[in-house]
Amino acid sequence: MQELKDIIRLLKEEGLAEITVSDGDQRVTVKRFVQGSPTQQVQQAPVIETPIQSTAPELPEREFQLTAPLVGTFYRRPSPDDEPFVSTGEVVQAGDTICIIEAMKVMNEIKAEAPGRVRQALLDDGAVVEFGQPLFIFEKL
Predict the structure, then answer these.
(1) Considering only CA atoms, which of 108, 113, 112 is closest in space to residue 129?
(2) How confident is the model over 55-79, as pLDDT tens digits?
(3) Cβ distance 32 to 17 under 8 Å?
(4) Any idea what DSSP says for residue 123?
(5) Does residue 88 sit in the same domain as residue 135?
(6) Backbone dihedral region for residue 54 (phi beyond 0: left; psi -120 to 50: alpha; all else: beta)
């Protein structure tokens, strides 16, 4: 309930008419109706879409990538003083924690979906990630 209140507060503070927040397969849309005369129209800022840049747009058949399941801030390590969850060359199993994405002050552990060897980490700690953005490249085992 507190998260919903935070979303509503953000909607009002930013002067937005609508906001959608997703976490995994959960999605919440909050709309605010602006009162005014029927002839008054709410102007919206133009939406500028920027394609997500990936260092590996097309992967060889023997590789696969792990993508962000939600929007947030990416972290490779549990805390700034700790080692990364995984390093290049390391073998992981399905279910191993690979990184953390912080969303709305909640630390979400991102787990490997399949076994593989880490080929490349595509982001640094503190990077903002979008839904579906590639995070790591793995070699299939």
Answers:
(1) 108
(2) 445 778 899 999 999 999 999 999 9
(3) yes
(4) -
(5) yes
(6) beta
Q: 18 pairs with which residues across the strands?
A: 31
The reported pTM is 0.59
- Residue 34: per-residue pLDDT: 54
> Residue 135 has which token pair?
């995070």
Per the listing, tokens 């919440």 go with 28
**DSSP summary character for residue 72:** E
CA separation for the pair 64, 92 (Å, rounded)? 13
Query: Which pLDDT value is given to residue 45?
Result: 47
Task: State the residue range of the domain holding 6.
Answer: 2-31
C-alpha 10/C-alpha 97 separation (Å) is 31
| pLDDT tens sequence across 126-140 | 999 999 999 999 999
- Residues 21 and 89 placed together within one structural domain of the fold: no
How many domains does the chain contain in total?
A: 2
